[in-house]
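Format notes (please read before filing issues)

Several people have asked whether sequences and structure tokens are stored in separate files. They are not. Every record keeps both together, in the order shown below: the sequence lines, then the token lines. Line labels are part of the format and must not be stripped during preprocessing.
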Amino acid sequence: MSRNKSTGINPKNGNLVDIFYGWDEVPGFKPGYFFQVYSRDPEEIKNSPGKEGVIVNEGFINGITKEELISLSKVWNCRVIV
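Then the structure lines:
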């Protein structure tokens, strides 16, 4: 697994968010990229499932394509290096 960090902008409210992305292979599932967005807003974190502030969790088990990763990075206004 590779895990990289970036920052982005939440398209719904303009807040700064933390982005984690990379490549992963989970045995028994489709390998590919993942893209995760975490809120920095304490209230949003407190009210999120798991209390981690996860807003987006794409490709966590079944990977997404490079094109999907790039598309998500554009939506969340962040820089990814693939």
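For reference, the curators noted about this record: The two ends are 14 Å apart (CA to CA). Helices lie at 42-47, 66-75.
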